[in-house]
Design goal:
There is one protein chain. This protein is mainly alpha-helical and about 220 residues long. The chain has helices at about 1-25, 30-50, 60-75, 75-80, 85-90, 105-140, 140-165, 170-175, 175-190, 195-220. Helix 2 runs parallel beside helix 6 (about 105-140). The longest helix has about 35 residues, at about 105-140.
Protein backbone atom coordinates (compact mmCIF):
# COMPACT_ATOMS: atom_id res chain seq x y z
CA UNK A 1 0.00 0.00 0.00
CA UNK A 2 2.78 2.44 0.91
CA UNK A 3 4.53 1.77 -2.41
CA UNK A 4 1.34 2.52 -4.34
CA UNK A 5 0.79 5.77 -2.43
CA UNK A 6 4.39 6.87 -2.98
CA UNK A 7 4.19 6.03 -6.69
CA UNK A 8 0.92 7.97 -7.02
CA UNK A 9 2.47 10.94 -5.24
CA UNK A 10 5.51 11.02 -7.51
CA UNK A 11 3.31 10.60 -10.58
CA UNK A 12 1.06 13.51 -9.58
CA UNK A 13 4.00 15.81 -8.94
CA UNK A 14 5.57 14.91 -12.29
CA UNK A 15 2.34 15.56 -14.21
CA UNK A 16 1.90 18.88 -12.39
CA UNK A 17 5.46 19.87 -13.29
CA UNK A 18 4.86 18.88 -16.93
CA UNK A 19 1.70 21.01 -17.10
CA UNK A 20 3.62 24.00 -15.71
CA UNK A 21 6.31 23.52 -18.35
CA UNK A 22 3.82 23.13 -21.22
CA UNK A 23 1.72 26.14 -20.21
CA UNK A 24 4.60 28.27 -18.92
CA UNK A 25 2.57 29.05 -15.79
CA UNK A 26 2.74 28.16 -12.10
CA UNK A 27 -0.41 25.97 -12.27
CA UNK A 28 -0.57 23.31 -9.56
CA UNK A 29 2.56 24.59 -7.87
CA UNK A 30 0.59 24.53 -4.62
CA UNK A 31 0.14 20.75 -4.92
CA UNK A 32 3.67 20.07 -3.65
CA UNK A 33 2.90 21.65 -0.28
CA UNK A 34 -0.64 20.28 -0.09
CA UNK A 35 0.48 16.72 -0.84
CA UNK A 36 3.27 17.01 1.73
CA UNK A 37 0.73 18.06 4.38
CA UNK A 38 -1.52 15.16 3.30
CA UNK A 39 1.30 12.72 4.07
CA UNK A 40 1.93 14.13 7.56
CA UNK A 41 -1.00 12.30 9.28
CA UNK A 42 0.12 8.91 7.91
CA UNK A 43 3.69 9.57 8.99
CA UNK A 44 2.48 10.51 12.48
CA UNK A 45 0.10 7.54 12.80
CA UNK A 46 2.87 5.18 11.64
CA UNK A 47 5.14 6.63 14.32
CA UNK A 48 2.38 6.24 16.92
CA UNK A 49 1.95 2.59 15.93
CA UNK A 50 5.70 1.98 16.17
CA UNK A 51 6.03 3.60 19.61
CA UNK A 52 2.90 1.88 20.92
CA UNK A 53 4.29 -1.53 20.01
CA UNK A 54 7.38 -0.92 22.14
CA UNK A 55 7.62 -1.26 25.90
CA UNK A 56 5.11 1.09 27.54
CA UNK A 57 6.66 3.74 29.78
CA UNK A 58 5.50 7.07 31.14
CA UNK A 59 7.61 8.80 28.52
CA UNK A 60 6.14 6.76 25.67
CA UNK A 61 2.58 7.37 26.94
CA UNK A 62 3.19 11.13 27.02
CA UNK A 63 4.81 10.97 23.59
CA UNK A 64 1.91 9.02 22.09
CA UNK A 65 -0.62 11.39 23.65
CA UNK A 66 1.11 14.41 22.14
CA UNK A 67 1.41 12.75 18.74
CA UNK A 68 -2.27 11.76 18.78
CA UNK A 69 -3.29 15.39 19.33
CA UNK A 70 -0.94 16.52 16.57
CA UNK A 71 -2.27 13.78 14.29
CA UNK A 72 -5.87 14.88 14.81
CA UNK A 73 -4.99 18.49 13.94
CA UNK A 74 -3.24 17.48 10.71
CA UNK A 75 -5.63 14.70 9.64
CA UNK A 76 -7.98 16.93 7.56
CA UNK A 77 -5.05 17.82 5.28
CA UNK A 78 -5.30 14.35 3.73
CA UNK A 79 -8.99 14.36 2.81
CA UNK A 80 -8.58 18.04 1.83
CA UNK A 81 -6.96 16.84 -1.40
CA UNK A 82 -10.41 15.67 -2.47
CA UNK A 83 -11.39 19.32 -2.96
CA UNK A 84 -8.49 19.93 -5.35
CA UNK A 85 -10.74 18.59 -8.13
CA UNK A 86 -12.13 22.11 -8.51
CA UNK A 87 -8.78 23.27 -9.92
CA UNK A 88 -9.29 21.13 -13.02
CA UNK A 89 -11.78 23.79 -14.14
CA UNK A 90 -9.99 26.79 -12.68
CA UNK A 91 -7.50 27.16 -15.52
CA UNK A 92 -9.97 26.75 -18.39
CA UNK A 93 -12.54 29.29 -19.58
CA UNK A 94 -15.96 27.62 -20.06
CA UNK A 95 -17.12 30.69 -22.00
CA UNK A 96 -14.18 30.70 -24.40
CA UNK A 97 -14.44 30.40 -28.16
CA UNK A 98 -13.05 26.85 -28.09
CA UNK A 99 -14.72 24.22 -25.93
CA UNK A 100 -12.30 23.51 -23.08
CA UNK A 101 -12.95 19.77 -23.14
CA UNK A 102 -11.29 19.41 -26.54
CA UNK A 103 -8.06 20.74 -25.00
CA UNK A 104 -5.85 17.77 -24.03
CA UNK A 105 -4.33 19.84 -21.20
CA UNK A 106 -7.76 19.89 -19.57
CA UNK A 107 -7.87 16.10 -19.52
CA UNK A 108 -4.38 15.94 -18.05
CA UNK A 109 -5.54 18.45 -15.46
CA UNK A 110 -8.74 16.54 -14.70
CA UNK A 111 -6.88 13.23 -14.41
CA UNK A 112 -4.28 14.82 -12.14
CA UNK A 113 -6.83 16.28 -9.74
CA UNK A 114 -8.85 13.04 -9.75
CA UNK A 115 -5.80 10.99 -8.78
CA UNK A 116 -4.83 13.60 -6.18
CA UNK A 117 -8.32 13.33 -4.69
CA UNK A 118 -8.07 9.52 -4.48
CA UNK A 119 -4.56 9.84 -3.03
CA UNK A 120 -5.78 12.18 -0.30
CA UNK A 121 -8.70 9.94 0.66
CA UNK A 122 -6.40 6.89 0.68
CA UNK A 123 -3.87 8.62 2.92
CA UNK A 124 -6.66 9.66 5.28
CA UNK A 125 -8.34 6.27 5.62
CA UNK A 126 -5.02 4.37 5.87
CA UNK A 127 -3.92 6.68 8.67
CA UNK A 128 -7.24 6.31 10.51
CA UNK A 129 -7.05 2.55 10.05
CA UNK A 130 -3.71 2.50 11.89
CA UNK A 131 -5.20 4.42 14.80
CA UNK A 132 -8.28 2.19 14.75
CA UNK A 133 -6.10 -0.90 15.21
CA UNK A 134 -4.60 0.68 18.33
CA UNK A 135 -8.04 1.61 19.65
CA UNK A 136 -9.22 -1.98 19.18
CA UNK A 137 -6.51 -3.10 21.61
CA UNK A 138 -7.76 -0.77 24.34
CA UNK A 139 -11.50 -0.44 23.72
CA UNK A 140 -14.32 -2.75 22.78
CA UNK A 141 -15.30 -2.90 19.13
CA UNK A 142 -18.36 -0.67 19.48
CA UNK A 143 -16.49 2.05 21.39
CA UNK A 144 -13.60 2.10 18.95
CA UNK A 145 -16.04 2.44 16.02
CA UNK A 146 -17.73 5.39 17.74
CA UNK A 147 -14.34 7.08 18.24
CA UNK A 148 -13.44 6.49 14.59
CA UNK A 149 -16.80 7.92 13.52
CA UNK A 150 -16.13 11.08 15.53
CA UNK A 151 -12.64 11.32 14.02
CA UNK A 152 -14.09 11.06 10.50
CA UNK A 153 -16.66 13.74 11.29
CA UNK A 154 -14.00 16.10 12.71
CA UNK A 155 -11.82 15.43 9.67
CA UNK A 156 -14.71 16.33 7.36
CA UNK A 157 -15.32 19.55 9.28
CA UNK A 158 -11.62 20.30 9.05
CA UNK A 159 -11.76 19.95 5.26
CA UNK A 160 -14.54 22.55 5.15
CA UNK A 161 -12.62 24.92 7.42
CA UNK A 162 -9.52 24.58 5.27
CA UNK A 163 -11.23 24.96 1.91
CA UNK A 164 -13.77 27.68 2.63
CA UNK A 165 -12.50 29.51 5.73
CA UNK A 166 -8.85 29.08 4.67
CA UNK A 167 -7.56 28.14 8.12
CA UNK A 168 -4.49 25.92 8.56
CA UNK A 169 -3.99 23.04 11.00
CA UNK A 170 -1.80 25.10 13.33
CA UNK A 171 -4.45 27.83 13.53
CA UNK A 172 -6.51 25.49 15.73
CA UNK A 173 -4.02 26.28 18.50
CA UNK A 174 -3.24 29.86 17.49
CA UNK A 175 -6.74 31.22 16.84
CA UNK A 176 -9.38 28.71 17.97
CA UNK A 177 -11.84 31.49 18.84
CA UNK A 178 -11.82 32.93 15.32
CA UNK A 179 -12.23 29.48 13.78
CA UNK A 180 -15.24 28.78 16.01
CA UNK A 181 -16.66 32.20 15.15
CA UNK A 182 -16.36 31.44 11.42
CA UNK A 183 -18.12 28.12 11.87
CA UNK A 184 -20.99 29.70 13.79
CA UNK A 185 -21.27 32.48 11.19
CA UNK A 186 -21.45 29.94 8.37
CA UNK A 187 -24.03 27.87 10.22
CA UNK A 188 -26.30 30.88 10.69
CA UNK A 189 -25.97 32.04 7.08
CA UNK A 190 -29.06 31.41 4.97
CA UNK A 191 -27.06 30.06 2.02
CA UNK A 192 -24.59 28.04 4.09
CA UNK A 193 -23.31 24.80 2.61
CA UNK A 194 -21.43 23.80 5.77
CA UNK A 195 -23.71 20.97 6.93
CA UNK A 196 -24.24 19.47 3.48
CA UNK A 197 -20.57 19.73 2.52
CA UNK A 198 -19.36 18.19 5.78
CA UNK A 199 -21.96 15.43 5.44
CA UNK A 200 -20.85 14.73 1.86
CA UNK A 201 -17.15 14.48 2.75
CA UNK A 202 -18.05 12.38 5.81
CA UNK A 203 -20.02 9.89 3.71
CA UNK A 204 -17.23 9.68 1.11
CA UNK A 205 -14.66 9.00 3.83
CA UNK A 206 -16.90 6.43 5.54
CA UNK A 207 -17.45 4.56 2.29
CA UNK A 208 -13.73 4.62 1.58
CA UNK A 209 -12.96 3.45 5.10
CA UNK A 210 -15.46 0.59 4.97
CA UNK A 211 -13.96 -0.50 1.64
CA UNK A 212 -10.47 -0.48 3.17
CA UNK A 213 -11.62 -2.49 6.19
CA UNK A 214 -13.20 -5.09 3.92
CA UNK A 215 -10.02 -5.35 1.84
CA UNK A 216 -7.84 -5.52 4.94
CA UNK A 217 -10.09 -8.22 6.36
CA UNK A 218 -9.41 -10.30 3.26
CA UNK A 219 -5.69 -9.68 3.03
CA UNK A 220 -4.77 -8.98 6.69
CA UNK A 221 -2.14 -6.61 5.35
CA UNK A 222 -1.73 -2.85 4.83
Amino acid sequence: MSSILIAATIGCLLVAADLRTKTNTNMYQFLTWDIFLAWVPLIISSTISYVSNKKITRTSIALVGGMCACWLFFLPNSAYLFTEILHAFRYFDPQGGTKFWVNIDFWYSLTLTFVVAILGLALSICSIHQIHKLLDKRLNQFSSMIVVGIILLLSSLGVYIGRFNRWNSWDVLKQPGLILKDIMTDLSAGNSILVEFVAMVFVIQVLGYITLRILMGKSNNI
